[in-house]
Amino acid sequence: MKIRDLPEDELVVGSFACAGCGGILAVRLALKILGPETVIVTTPSCLLGVTTFYPQLAFKVPCVNVTFPSTAAAVSGVVAGLKRRGKEHITVLGIAGDGGTVDIGLQALSGAIERGDNFIFLCYDNEAYMNTGVQRSGSTPLGAHTTTTPVGEMLKGEDRPKKDMLRIVAAHDIPYAATASIGYPQDYLRKIQKAKETKGPAYIQVLSPCPPGWGYPSDLTVHLARLAVQTGAWTLAEYEQGKLTVKKIDHPKPLREYLSLQARFAHLI
Amino acid sequence: MLQIRWHGRGGQGVVTAARIFGRAAAIYGGKYAQSFPYFGTERRGAPVTAFTRLSEQPIRDRSQVYEPDCVVVLDETLLESVDVLQGLRPGGILVLNGSRTNHQGLKFKLPENTAFYQIEVTSLAQEILGVPIVNTAMVSVLAAVTSWVPWEAIKKAIQDILPSHLVEKNLRLAEEAFHRALALRQVASSQGGEGEPNSKSKGNLHLPADNLQPNLPTPHLVARTGSWRIQRPVIDPWKCNDCLICWLFCPEGSIRRGESCTSIDLTYCKGCGICARECPRQAIHMVDEALISQGEGERLAGIS
Amino acid sequence: MREYLNGNEAVAHAVRLARAEVVAAYPITPQSTIVEEIAAQIARGEMEAEYIRVESEHAALAACFGAAVSGSRVFTATSSQGLAYMFEMLHYVSGARIPMVMAVANRGLAAPWTIWADHQDSVSCRDTGWIQLYVETAQEALDTCLQAYKIAEDPRVLTPVMLCLDGYVLSHTEEILDIPSQEDVDRFLPPYRPQVLVDTRRPVVFGVGAGPDIYPSFKKAQQEAMERAKEVIKRVDEEFYAFFGRRYGGLVEEYRCHDAEVVLVTLGAITGTAREVVDSLRREGAKVGVLRLRALRPFPVEDLRESVKSARVVAVLDRNCSFGYEGVVCTEVKAALFGLKQPPSVIGFVAGLGGQDIRKENIEGIFRSCFNSDV
Ligand SMILES: Cc1ncc(C[n+]2csc(CCOP(=O)(O)OP(=O)(O)O)c2C)c(N)n1
Ligand code: SF4
Ligand code: SF4
Ligand code: SF4
Ligand SMILES: [Mg+2]
Predict the structure, then answer these.
(1) Is the pLDDT of residue C273 over 60?
(2) What integer pLDDT is reported at residue B102 of this predicted model?
(3) CATH number assigned to the domain covering A8-268
(4) Which of B239, B240, B263, B275 is the pocket-test mutation for ligand 3 (most atoms within 8 Å of CB)?
(5) What confidence score (pLDDT) does residue B213 get?
(6) Is A18 within 8 Å of A214 (Cβ atoms)?
(7) Where are the domains of chain A?
(8) How far is A217 from chain C (nearest CA, A)?
(9) How remote is the CA of residue A43 from the centroid of ligand 1, in Å?
(10) Looking at the structure, do residues C237 and C290 belong to the same domain, yes or no?
């Protein structure tokens, strides 16, 4: 895939996201592949807060906002509604943050995958509840400082490992699931393309660094998303037809390189 | 009662400024005080407002401040998008952080008898803190030009509120800013730029009035986030080979591809700097907005 | 067509006749047989709809929301704990002005656990912005379900309707009723044609965020729609009468109220028993009547005032309790009568919680105590 072959049309414009927001970049890139025949279903998160605040709609595709636990349930409804109108060619794209996916949205997601509805679920993973001020989520990595896992005498940041959502999703025997990183756009866009072609549910969890939440200057967003993979802090994996493949990193860089650029890990360095 | 409105951008510590000033007055200044932010859903870089009220009596009013006695602006680039003077009382005080001597083209008109103080503390903050965060400096400047709160009280409040590892440097910054401000002469109100008051503008929302139908879903409308920028990317056409890496990675979709020439549309560009960092040929430079407006941008970017 | 069905089956038939296109529901007693019957109708090919087997009530309403904004007429049903679990979505659907119909087979709330009827579940949702209609018979459940779609989808209303039927007392009680023909229903209820829906050619957002400057306008619009719903509910009831020869009084249904000195205000199925008592007391010469509130929201202030004009005492029978005060309907009635020149006195009675049977003697006792009260 050549960059020049991607469509020039921008489908996300004028969001209120922070400068350098990885989440917005993840959504923008996904829409490059999915195109204008897409409906977004999303829930309270940074994404909702920065894109659909009256009278703003920063998407050039329809957007259905719903309550925090319900992304995937509303997705099922939209899929059924579009089917009734003979519009099955429209891609239904559920988007949630990591909290809206691995924590409060898990039950709905499990239900929708199990029902086998035709949709893509995109989890933009910034590894905490950013919208409410950087509280930990099930997706926060071990050791990370958040406002609810602070660093002090008694606690040194998050004390539990990150929830392995890909395996949870895979356990549903989902037709297609993958992890990706905005630092590897070719890989990410290929996976979005695969998800689009999949009949039935597809799940993609994309690492989307967050400058204020992780504590780094905004120009490092893509650099960190790449370093995370190069140091082994994040894996690029794919689950397809019952098989899990993990991209091997031949000469991993020292983890310190990744951690030392972020304030959330400052106490570990 | 004295009412202060603070203007800045998300991430600049505006809310903390309001709080430091209020705490100084209430705990160490023998006054009653109240401070509170106005939260929007915008993020870092977006305009943010906060308020401080001071009084000799207990303060019961909890509404927002509409007619401030004093407005403090932490970032002069705000003047282009926010009506910072809205409601400022005649005879009120405007304190502005910025180095622009030329306020031409700015959409504001000072009310009668405004005491207008201008000072540049961003470079001072950069020098002492290593980051351009000016909230403690501007709190000190306000204390110097108004004497509403004793200087000792301000220092104690800074110590109370900031995390301990930031206290020492911020006190140094505050001290320096305070003394520079004591020497500050009021800029005569006549030097304020002429122009239309832009009280009709709705922050940075582009808002055709006929779309305000409360019970209908909203059509595509966007916010012009370009006004958030404090640095702007400038492409050196001699170095650029149109590889489009910057286009791929720009979160705002602000890069234009063109047939043979990559360029940047600044309408929504927030100045995050990703393009500059990711460009394999180092063809993009980030330049301070404040300097751009003085026509020095291209020179600073090394382009002639 | 004459049939012998219980309230839940009657509702299921109404949903088929209304040509609901998407149904999403989660099982709970005593609602479950509504959606079981709908699933069976779909399986038999009698009804053409998508049935989404969701994993919770919260998801049921979210799925209905998604389907409705995509242009489908939708239906769901629940009871008690399920309704409580939906609470967040209730406000969401009404605030987004999504017209839909949900049947609530009324049941008490735990703890202690109960599966039996009272109105605590739906009355607790009084302020969620849904229109609430309470029915008295299985026939009325069927008819009101059809009316409810027409009310909800009226462009002046665009507000969801909760169709409340007492658990077991209506939901599981068979009686004779008439099922209208599909042709007649099609003429009464045109297809759902929302003005705005998910459309890639005209992108809009549903469930937008709103700042303090504009949020009140959305809420005011919602309140105004509720006010307009009063007229629409009455008109739709009359239209229904013109088509099918049955009507239910619009917002309130009076029974021998015109000269009554004591009027008993009721909600739902218990009204039938109260009618019996009124007849027997009338035979003794006591001037008594029953006023059934068909709508709890919008609250029929004007109709209520009119109906109790002759009354010295208004008794209110509540199958719910606002703990720390009194029955909710009693408070509402008092508020509605406040400011009248010579207002009747209002006496509240809380009874029939958690399926406790309310017998004729109990109602007779209420009337007698009202006559004896020297207010
Ligand atoms: C039921 C419910 N609980 C809590 C909230 C508050 N809330 C809104 S967004 C959010 C966090 C979102 O985190 P995540 O899904 O990771 O998205 P992010 O903001 O990090 O992008 C929370 C806790 C809510 N809206 N609804
Ligand atoms: S807080 Fe993080 S996720 Fe939220 S808008 Fe800012 S950068 Fe994006
Ligand atoms: S990344 Fe650099 S070289 Fe490539 S198009 Fe952008 S500015 Fe030009
Ligand atoms: S600075 Fe950021 S927003 Fe502006 S063009 Fe570069 S990448 Fe895009
Ligand atoms: Mg998150």
Answers:
(1) yes
(2) 57
(3) 3.40.50.970
(4) B240
(5) 40
(6) no
(7) 8-268
(8) 29
(9) 8
(10) no
Residues C46 and C185 in one domain: yes
Mean pLDDT across the stretch C165-194? 96
The answer to whether A184 touches A226, Cβ cutoff 8 Å, is yes
Same-domain pairing of C260 and C237: no
**C72 and C220 within one domain:** yes
pLDDT of residue B225: 82
Average pLDDT, chain A: 96
Residues of A in contact with C208 (CB under 8 A): 52-55, 57, 65
C8 lies in the same domain as C126? yes
State in words which class domain B224-300 has: alpha beta
Average model confidence (pLDDT) for chain B? 82
C257 and C192 both lie in a single domain:
no
| Structural domain boundaries, residue C329 | 252-372
Distance of CA C196 to the CA centre of its chain: 27
CA-closest residue to ligand 3 atom 8: B240
Same domain for C84 and C111, yes or no, is: yes
Atom of ligand 2 nearest to the CA of A208: 3
Domains B2-216 and B224-300 belong to one CATH topology: no
Give the up-direction half-sphere exposure of residue B150: CA atoms within 13 A in the CB hemisphere.
9
Cα separation, C17 vs C3, in Å, equals 15
Q: Best-predicted range by mean pLDDT among B118-132, B165-179, B256-270?
A: B165-179
Mean pLDDT, residues C188-193: 96
Total count of domains within chain C: 2
Question: What ipTM was estimated for this complex?
Answer: 0.96
Query: How is domain B2-216 classified at the CATH fold level?
Result: Pyruvate-ferredoxin Oxidoreductase; domain 3 (3.40.920)
What pLDDT does residue B301 have?
53
Asked which of A204-208, A254-258, B119-123, C8-12 is least confident by mean pLDDT, the reply is: B119-123
Residue ranges per structural domain of chain B = 2-216, 224-300
Instruction: Report the predicted TM-score, pTM, of the whole model to 2 decimal places.
Output: 0.88
Which of C228, C244, C260 lies at the terminal end of a domain, its last residue? C244
Residues of A in contact with B220 (CB under 8 A): 57-60
In the structure, what pLDDT confidence band is assigned to residue B198 with cuts at 50, 70 and 90?
very low
